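Q: What would this chain look like folded?
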Amino acid sequence: MEEIWVEKYRPQKLSDIIGQEEITKRLQAYVATRNLPHLLFAGPPGTGKTTSAVALAKELYGESWRDNFAELNASDERGINVVRGRIKDFARTASHSADVPFKIIFLDEADSLTNDAQAALRRTMEKYAGNCRFVLSCNYSSKIMDPIQSRCALFRFRPYSKQDMTKLVRKVANAEKLEVKPDGLEALLYVAAGDMRRVVNTMQVASAGGRAVTAESVFTTTATARPEDVKAMLELALSGNFAGARDKLDELLISYGLSGEDIIRQIHRTVFDLTVPDKVKVDLVERVGEADFRLVEGANERIQIEALLARFALTGGSLKI
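A: My prediction, written as structure tokens:
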């Protein structure tokens, strides 16, 4: 494959970041004052946390940003020895910049750090605050211990809107001379679900066989079932046609090669599009949650999904759909 597009189109400046205007304004204010506190970036994957950290370092340090910026992935190096070793060694050394008196340590996926490592990190953040700032990135801020959170300015990144993702799709399509069909755009937005990194990667993969991005190429290359197919399966079940819904499930499993958890996630998204009363949707979502829990615990995915479809059929029968 050619150059990875998600890296090729990664914003290099804070002003280039799409859809997180409030966050970039606050970060630009830190750049202007040449000072910042410890930062905690929290939000779903693909919403610009890593990009914002790197762009912040580039604007602060200019050409010398690599000498003053250290990036560690806590999911790979999550033990206390990493905090006591690599992080502490980098934190205790002085900045190489004449304008900025501190360096930055960017700790990605910090919610994967063990409790002991977080306790050691808390002390390191306190001891070396004079010549080092920490930027912690996580998907779930609740997994970061309170003493660390209280030392950081919190930035919450939200999933990208369809409008923001459409802007980037058009930008990439024009640069790469791609034709994105209307159904292809809708498919990209559905598959990405607010994840900007996923939408760019999906574009690159879907266009590998040609220069047009269609719904068919998107769903095929991402192993995602068409939402209308999932909806048809649920409507068959609600109408009392359990055998038909089961056949549709077989078709989805064979055509798309989905796992049980993939199907459960798509069923959950589709429940809200069904033409049933809200009270019924509440019950159905609860049943979907039970099935998802059982799959996570190791239950047989075929049995659990068929049991879920059976529950849909029973619910539909009581409604006389």
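The chain has a mean pLDDT of 88.
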